[in-house]
Request: fold
Amino acid sequence: MSRGLGDVYKRQNKIEWRKNMQNRIYEILLEEGIELPMRKEDFNLAESLEDSLEFISAMVAIEDNLGIEIPDEIFNYESLVSFKGFCELLEEQVNKSE
Reply:
């Protein structure tokens, strides 16, 4: 494989991994009983959480399923304005824990 094709392959794998991560988080939230909008590119996750108990329950479920600890700086409603952005923050935490 040439160097150029190898780079393309790595980018495609990263994109696919990121989509899988987003799907996994989406499924975890559904399993927690959180009503989410139909699958679309991005949405405001904070609007789907009814109260702080549901928020904490969702974060604990994500931590347990992904085997990570969500740091305090992203353990807040502001990080949930974008589902896609929240998934990217979690992806960074997964990469740190590996």
